[in-house]
Amino acid sequence: MTAITHVYNYTVRCPHYQDPQHEVSWKNHIELNHSSEIALKRITKWHSESGELAFEDQGFVVRKASDEMAYFSVQSSRLKNDGHALVTFKLFLDECCDEADPKDIVEHLIGDYQQRLDKL
Prior knowledge:
This is Cytoplasmic protein. It comes from Shewanella amazonensis (strain ATCC BAA-1098 / SB2B). The protein has helices at about 35-50, 100-120, and strands at about 5-15, 30-35, 50-55, 60-65, 70-80, 85-90. Strand 3 (about 50-55) and strand 4 form a beta hairpin. By secondary structure, it is an alpha+beta fold. The protein contains two helices and six strands, in the order ββαββββα.
């Protein structure tokens, strides 16, 4: 049996402020952490509140939460040397971010995740 050796939790939030010095974009509000505890909490919550299927992208099934403007996905990847990576995506999209396309955001996150895996 192999263990989960790498955990990646991505959280994207739409900005709620205007900053004339910087472009207002979800790309400036991507958080990444490696907490197993956060990953387990997300998986547990999503298992009991699975929402509805929004779309699929590159093997990632993305669901829309039923009680908030949020999208989420979870995936595992097999690594060299018998390891596994676990990744979670959570996108908080609300009325301040109408122009944000969840598909574009997920595609961006998948690309970042793949780059990280390629470096391992």
